[in-house]
Write a structure and sequence with these properties.
By secondary structure, this protein is an alpha/beta fold. About 35% of the residues lie in helices and about 15% in strands. The protein has a 6-stranded parallel β-sheet, with helices on both faces. The relative contact order is 0.11.
Length: about 600
């Protein structure tokens, strides 16, 4: 059955566009309402194999698409009308670029004769997103000419490939349309159905295989030389695993475990890494390094000579400061070619995958006192943290992250908002074997579109959870408009501390005014009433047992907000008073440098 629409020129063009993308692997298109984009909307809405989802708010739509693409590691199409509509995609385009998420952005536009002449809803959309897309082009005006249709097909193939290779990211296509925008018949277009052969036209395109698209190999290049002798001979080496959202978390964790065991290095695992949720795979997993490094004596004794970092730098400021002070020799494993060294140290980037690295490893040494010292310190600090958290009855916001790590159902997708939730996960997330899947927007580290991204991640997935603060949720409340299109379940754990808790950790907090009004920015919102307006379930959490009961098991469908009201200033004071005490009395004898 052909999906090509011969009603008129615009629909023939856009139906070929939709069918080409489908054959390349597109399964979801996010559509924002508008007139100029009508031919695109009709083509995607009528395609039987593409899930077309209408979303009113363009910024929310873009982050929902980002969440979908992040979960699936396959491009999602994002469509809007002309004018300022596309500008609302910009924050998500930036995040997609910085966190390497494949997005195919298609903005409708006025034709050339309606530009720069005071026509309505016409702005300059060329290079609208500057240098952030992997690639940009303005597609030709729709045409019935067969050579132009072939041009469209081949350009879309290139655009699709540019969203994925050599580094995933956004691609922007600007598509102008002349009238008619509605599906009004044109005899010339209808006549073309007699000569158009879809089997022949699409013969060079594969059938959609979204399960393998993300695994397509990059073009071969000479493998970099590895300093294996240096790594194996170093008795004070460690591995740092930064934030990661791999397509296959278990394979990723096994590869790092193999690296750790081969070198007998400890692995400092960021809270936004799946490593903490596959703890049984790695006996050298270290999760309390931020707290350990607050002990100046331990920080000095545990100074490394060699660091192998997997991907991006972790969130911990303590870790960054320590690395900057100790200046170890660093190697960064990242196939993308990006510069991932914000500290500008003695660093070498090795542009290869984890699998490439592990395949070239040698046999492990027998013993490493440095690794044993790290493991001893981590075990003592973890025991102290767990004891304090277990005995904390007050609604301290840091305990939410700790409790999640203890009770989430297996394989739960978890979206973690920026600002304090990310840092509390770093501080308190306990190692476990839940196989929970952390997701986050840490490319640009903003709070933009948090709810919409979480919904995109949860769409058609197992019951999911979002951990967020009040300001991040309020910044994206139009994400609740997705409720009618959303399939799955999302529990939103809302930490309502009446403002921006992260600012309480900064020096500016000592200066009030202007701190409370212009930095903490508390908002007066009744979240129960807000949720009722959107038809979203809301419940106020009174104690930890109630929260635990609501988190396991999770519902199968719908959205709900579990609101946990905390004291922002008291919680900031708790962190200041306690984070430095967990490792205060650890001496690590007999190990010493």
């Amino acid at each position: 059955m052909t999906t090509i629409d011969f009603t008129n020129t615009n629909l023939l063009w856009t139906s070929i566009l939709a069918e080409t993308l489908y054959r390349l692997g597109l399964t979801i298109a996010i559509i924002c309402p508008g007139s100029r984009s009508a031919p695109l909307t009709v083509a995607f809405a009528n395609h039987p194999e593409i899930e077309a989802i209408p979303i009113l708010d363009e910024r929310s739509a873009a982050f929902f698409a980002l969440g979908l693409a992040r979960q699936r590691h396959v491009p999602v199409a994002l469509v809007c009308t002309s004018g300022t509509a596309g500008a609302n995609f910009f924050p998500a385009v930036i995040e997609a670029r910085e966190s390497q998420v494949p997005l195919l952005v298609i903005t409708a536009d006025r034709p050339p004769e309606l530009r720069d002449c005071n026509a309505g809803q016409a702005i300059n959309q060329n290079y609208l997103y500057g240098s952030f897309p992997n690639w940009y082009t303005e597609l030709a005006l729709p045409s019935l000419d067969n050579k132009m249709l072939q041009y469209l097909r081949q350009t879309l193939i290139h655009a699709w490939e540019q969203t994925l290779y050599p580094v995933a990211g956004p691609v922007h296509l600007n598509q102008a349309f002349r009238e008619p925008l509605a599906p009004l018949p044109e005899p010339q277009a209808q006549a073309q159905s007699l000569s158009f052969n879809p089997t022949h036209f699409f013969a060079s395109l594969p059938l959609p295989r979204t399960d393998v698209l993300s695994k397509r190999p990059s073009p071969p290049s000479p493998p970099p030389l590895l300093p294996l002798s240096t790594w194996h001979s170093c008795q004070q080496g460690l591995i740092i695993a930064g934030p990661s959202q791999p397509a296959n978390p278990e394979a990723y964790c096994k590869a790092i475990a193999q690296l750790s065991q081969s070198l007998n290095y400890p692995v400092l695992a960021e809270g936004l890494s799946p490593l903490r949720n596959y703890a049984d795979l790695n006996p050298h997993l270290i999760t309390t390094y931020d707290v350990i490094l607050r002990n100046a004596g331990l920080a000095e004794k545990l100074s490394p000579e060699v660091v192998i970092r997997i991907g991006e730098m972790p969130t911990s400021k303590q870790l960054r400061t320590w690395l900057e002070k100790t200046q170890p020799r660093q190697w960064i494993i990242a196939p993308s070619g990006r510069n991932l060294d914000p500290l500008h140290g003695a660093t070498t980037h090795l542009h290869l995958t984890l699998d490439d690295l592990v395949s070239r490893l040698e046999q492990p040494p027998t013993v490493n006192p440095y690794t044993e010292a790290w493991c001893t310190a981590d075990a003592l600090v973890r025991e102290a943290i767990d004891q304090v958290m277990s005995n904390t009855s007050d609604l301290f916001e840091g305990k939410v992250a700790w409790l999640l790590s203890k009770i989430l159902p297996p394989d739960t997708p978890l979206f973690i908002s920026s600002s304090m939730p990310v840092r509390d996960v770093e501080f308190f997330w306990s190692p476990n074997n839940s196989r929970a899947k952390p997701f986050f927007n840490r490319g640009a580290n903003g709070i933009d579109g948090s709810l919409s991204t979480a919904l995109g991640i949860a769409h058609h997935q197992p019951p999911s959870v979002m951990l967020t603060g009040d300001l991040a949720l309020l910044h994206d409340t139009n994400g609740f408009l997705l409720r009618t299109a959303f399939h799955g379940h999302l529990t939103i754990l809302l930490i309502n501390n009446q403002g921006g808790g992260i600012f309480e950790m900064l020096p500016i907090a000592a200066f009030d005014p202007p701190f409370e009004t212009f930095f903490a920015t508390p908002q007066v919102v009744d979240f129960g009433t807000l949720c009722a307006a959107y038809g979203v379930e809301h419940e106020r959490i009174q104690d930890w047992s109630q929260l635990a009961q609501r988190l396991n098991p999770l519902p199968d469908s719908g959205m709900r907000v579990l609101e946990i009201c905390t004291d922002r200033k008291a919680d900031a004071q708790w962190r200041q008073n306690n984070l430095g005490t967990f490792a205060a009395n650890i001496a690590l004898y007999p190990y010493a440098r």
